[in-house]
Specification:
The chain is an all-alpha fold and 305 residues long. It has one domain. It is 81% helix and 0% strand. The protein has 13 helices and no strands. The longest helix has 39 residues. The radius of gyration is 20 Å and the shape is globular. The model has no long low-confidence stretch (mean pLDDT 88). InterPro entries: L-PG_synthase/AglD (IPR022791). This is Flippase-like domain-containing protein. Keywords: Cell membrane, Membrane, Transmembrane, Transmembrane helix. Pfam families: LPG_synthase_TM (PF03706). It is a multi-pass membrane protein.
Length: 305
């Protein structure tokens, strides 16, 4: 009951945000924007999209390895894309993170380790986004209201300072935590492991920003490309909050707001949001192939008996 209530609340938030956006949308301009998509830039963005997804899968693989779960990289990549399939085509119903946990547990991991691996995977993505904000808010944030710019910068600095402090002084605080949490954090926050995983989290964020900036190019958005390194981390953080259905409404609204501040029509932001999700569906299709192929193999094995 609680799961369905959460689903309908997220659906209501996404529906409300999209309704508000569409009330102010020039649909002729929106349709014209999609018709003008440059195939060259779009193909380039799709190429970068799959690179950053593979790097994301490798980051999760490294986290699992640090936590003591050793499985070949090809398996982790397949499970990662299967998770994308559920996130893309069944948002809010059966989360891709839960699917990832299920497959890892099925391979012999404990539920605790599998759950922590996914949580750390999300956390290092978040830290990578905050690091980009620390750099690009001062460099590229002149178009934003000053109080917003300062709030984002100091929040990012505070969170990263605390996190790096936890990594440096992990020996002094881990005994105060629960046994399972302390064990996993001791492994992940070991400075060598932490820096490796943080670097992978940052690499994923950089590739994601390049991917979206190429999508912007395909739509004819003319903002300086470094602005994306401020806008996209903010969009990603807000869209990942568990308040909407797959980020719908939040993603489009955030992009429309910031692009409008930079002199672009709101329709450009809405189009970029939908196009970003549309490319993500391609990753979901790859995951769907792996998922259905696995079901087919299981069916053949059961037919033998």
């Amino acid at each position: 009951m609680k799961k369905y209530l959460s689903f309908f609340l997220k659906l209501a938030v996404s529906g409300t945000l999209l309704f508000y956006l569409f009330r102010q949308t020039d649909f002729k301009l929106l349709l014209h924007t999609f018709k003008q998509v440059s195939s060259g830039w779009l193909i380039a963005s799709i190429f970068v999209f799959f690179i950053f997804q593979l790097v994301s899968a490798f980051r999760w693989y490294e986290i699992l390895k640090v936590l003591g779960f050793k499985r070949d990289l090809s398996f982790i990549c397949r499970v990662y894309f299967i998770g994308m399939f559920f996130n893309a085509f069944l948002p809010g119903i059966l989360g891709g993170d839960l699917i990832r946990v299920f497959y890892v547990v099925k391979e012999g991991s404990s539920k605790t380790l599998a759950s922590f691996s996914v949580a750390y995977d999300r956390a290092f993505g978040f830290l990578g986004a905050l690091f980009l904000l620390i750099i690009f808010v001062p460099l590229e944030g002149d178009f934003m209201p000053s109080h917003t710019r300062h709030s984002i910068f100091y929040f990012s600095v505070t969170v990263l300072t605390i996190t790096f402090g936890m990594a440096i002084f992990s020996r002094f605080w881990h005994e105060r935590l629960g046994k399972n949490l302390a064990h996993t954090m001791t492994l992940v926050f070991k400075i060598r492991n932490f820096l490796k995983l943080f670097s992978l989290g940052l690499a994923v964020q950089v590739l994601y920003n390049i991917h979206v900036s190429l999508l912007g190019k395909s739509l004819g958005i003319s903002i300086p490309w470094l602005k994306y390194f401020l806008i996209i981390p903010l969009m990603g953080i807000l869209a990942s909050l568990p308040i909407s259905l797959g980020g719908f409404g939040v993603r489009e609204g955030t992009l429309a707001y910031f692009l409008n501040l930079l002199g672009e029509p709101k329709e450009m932001g809405i189009a970029l949001g939908f196009l970003t999700y549309g490319v993500a569906l391609l990753g979901g299709l790859v995951g769907g192939y792996f998922y259905l192929r696995g079901d087919s193999k299981r069916q053949k094995q059961s037919d033998k008996y």
